[in-house]
Design a protein that fits this description.
The complex is a heterodimer.
Chain A: H1 3-24, H2 27-46, H3 59-90, H4 92-97, H5 102-116, H6 118-132, H7 140-168, H8 174-189, H9 201-209, H10 211-223, H11 239-266, H12 270-280
Chain B: E1 11-20, E2 23-33, E3 38-42, H1 49-56, E4 64-69, H2 79-84, E5 85-88, H3 100-109, H4 125-131, H5 147-159, E6 165-169, H6 177-193, E7 197-202, H7 205-211, E8 214-219, E9 222-227, H8 229-237, E10 240-246, E11 249-255, H9 258-269, E12 273-280, H10 283-295
Parallel strand pairs in B: 3-7, 3-8, 5-6, 6-7
Antiparallel strand pairs in B: 1-2, 1-4, 8-9, 10-11, 10-12
The chains are: A mainly alpha, B alpha/beta.
Chain lengths: 285, 307
């Protein structure tokens, strides 16, 4: 890494930290976190008496790690994707493009901001869950450790998807069609709310290509007792595969994302910012 | 410093063309900016001012032409080149949650490795805030600033890296008269004390006249006039406009010999001539006539008549 890049990365970390600080202090973002927490807890609470077939476990126990996995993936994909699209339109990106090594700082800031942004989500879900439901983490310290590495690897595997999505989407209006809908569909087939075995065979295969399924499986392996592996595909936690698939996605992401981001930055100019501003003021066309 | 030669222009453009599909925005722009010079690019909306600026800033690839900025091709220039160039673009609404002080500290930081003994980089943030008149707003959220205040911040961001060359695209849009005067002072200070070369666009003629060492008029995709405000004025001050009416019909004639023209007018029509008015053209008239001629492809808008 050249001296200029190291310097830019350091400034980018400061930017990410500042953005995170501003986010947790903003009533808008606080409301979002609280809503996420309440919705998840309410869903688990209303299903608290259900027993999961084939195990002695209650539904919230099984669903909590899966939902955490889905929220992590959703946040680190949609967070950077929407930030990139919006900040391309409002001029933030162009500001950084006009700085020496600015894009490197900007992207570093995004990575740190959206990684830290998971903390409030985890807190608003895990803390009340520990109080409301019994035995959230039977595995103790070893379980938390597993959860930590699965979480970090899962973030590394999914965040590049958000960056690439944000780089290729033409404008904010496309964000829901090409961002939200695929993200929700992927979550639906990835064994978060019901086991993948309930799906057709080809969909099970498709789900296992993407990282969300493996992130969910890894989280369940951290939070659930070993006996619960019996209801998974192949009847095991497949820990080696979790690590392998997530690492592969992370490596591919690391290789592709800089290329896509550089291409996006090269095509950025002031007229686009002006055009986006005019379009934004004109919703009905 | 990359490829600078003393005495060479800091910006040199030859035969710059830009087209979007069949639509040609720039049809062959030639222009130079010399070290320490303040040059104003004047032109109507859609003439291609911003496009020209974006090419010079390296944000847009030209369709054809030769562009050299600070000794390098902006489309291929490196980060060291970026550090020497300041950019203020037209419209921003970014960083709403940041404060001016935090943003200037963050953005200025990127220039630190490029400081030289002669050019400390970046500017001290407090001094910069004072220079652009934002001290009182330094710790307010940017979203809470008025349009004019935001524009001051844009200018501050443009100069935070202590640029050798500064591009300003309609910097005073949304300024009240006081902010405008402050900005003019700032431009003079940057150019006189720091030796910054400045290229700015505006459609305000008075502003161009006050700021520029040289005015370039961009119309019909090319530079149609190039000179100091005085030179442009001299070029056209000779021309006067004569207006009159005869039997209720109104006429206009542009001439460089109004006295002779009016005498001949009376010789020919005598008492029929009414509503006579003779007016010296000012810079604005010349500018408008020039733009009209080049936009409409050769015909001046005034109806010329010969008695």
């Amino acid at each position: 890494m050249s001296g200029g890049t190291t310097h830019a990365v350091r400034l980018g970390l400061r930017r990410g930290w500042t953005e995170f600080g501003q986010s947790v202090r903003s009533p808008q973002d606080q409301a979002f976190y609280v809503f996420m927490g309440m919705a998840t807890l309410a869903y688990l609470w209303f299903n608290r008496e259900d027993e999961v077939e084939g195990t002695a476990l209650l539904y919230p126990t099984v669903a909590l790690p899966s939902i955490l996995a889905a929220l992590v993936a959703f946040n680190v994909v949609m967070g950077p994707a929407s930030a990139l699209v919006m900040e391309r339109e409002d001029g933030t990106l162009l500001r950084y493009r006009s700085l020496p090594h600015g894009m490197q700082g900007y992207v570093t800031g995004q990575v740190l901001h959206h990684s830290l942004g998971l903390l409030p989500t985890l807190v608003v879900i895990l803390v009340p869950s520990a109080l409301l439901f019994d035995g959230v983490m039977p595995g103790g310290a070893a379980g938390w450790l597993t959860a930590l590495w699965v979480l970090l690897l899962g973030m590394a595997a999914t965040m590049p998807l958000g960056m690439v999505l944000g780089a290729v989407l033409p404008n904010v209006q496309k964000l829901s069609t090409w961002g939200m809908v695929p993200a929700l569909l992927l979550t639906a087939i990835s064994g978060i709310f019901f086991p993948v075995q309930a799906l057709w065979g080809w969909l099970q295969v498709a789900a296992q290509v993407f990282p969300v399924y493996w992130l969910g499986l890894g989280m369940r392996s951290a939070f659930l007792p070993d006996a619960a592996a019996a209801v998974e595909l192949t009847g095991s936690w497949r820990t080696g595969y979790v690590a392998l698939v997530l690492t592969s996605w992370a490596v591919v992401g690391l290789l592709i994302t800089p290329v896509v981001l550089r291409r996006m930055a090269r095509r950025q100019c002031g007229s686009q910012v002006a055009a986006a501003r005019d379009t934004a003021g004109q919703w009905v066309r | 410093m990359t490829g600078d030669v003393a005495g060479q222009p800091v910006v040199r453009v030859r035969g710059l063309r830009m087209s979007y599909g069949a639509h040609e925005v720039l049809t062959g722009v030639d222009l130079d900016v010399h070290p320490g010079e303040v040059v104003c690019l004047l032109g109507p909306n859609g003439a291609g001012k911003s496009t020209t600026m974006e090419v010079l800033e390296g944000f847009r690839l030209p369709s054809a032409g030769e562009v050299t900025v600070l000794g390098a091709d902006p489309a291929r220039a490196d980060d060291a080149w970026r550090a020497r160039v300041g950019v203020v673009l037209q419209s921003w609404r970014d960083h709403p949650r940041w404060t001016p002080r935090r943003l200037l500290t963050q953005l200025g930081g990127y220039y630190r490795p490029y400081a030289t003994p002669g050019r400390p980089r970046p500017y001290d943030v407090d001094r910069l805030l004072d220079t652009v008149g934002l001290t009182a707003d330094a710790d307010r959220k940017i979203a809470a600033l008025s349009g004019g205040r935001r524009r001051r911040l844009d200018v501050a961001v443009g100069i935070v890296g202590h640029p050798e060359l500064l591009f300003l695209d309609e910097p005073t849009a949304g300024f009240d008269p006081e902010a405008r005067r402050d900005f003019h002072d700032l431009v003079h200070r940057l150019s006189d004390l720091e030796g910054t070369s400045i290229l700015l666009t505006t459609h305000d003629l008075a502003e161009a006249e006050r700021l520029a060492d040289r005015i370039l008029v961009l119309a019909g995709g090319r530079i149609v006039a190039d000179g100091s405000a005085e030179a442009l004025n001299r070029q056209v001050a000779a021309i006067s406009e004569v207006r009159w009416s005869r039997h209720g019909e109104r006429f206009v004639h542009a001439t460089d010999e109004p006295t002779t023209f009016v005498r001949r007018l009376f010789e020919q029509y005598g008492d029929d001539v009414a509503d006579l008015e003779v007016r010296r053209a000012n810079l604005e008239d010349t500018y408008l006539a020039m733009v009209a001629r080049h936009e409409s492809g050769g015909r001046p808008q005034l109806v010329e008549v010969t008695p």
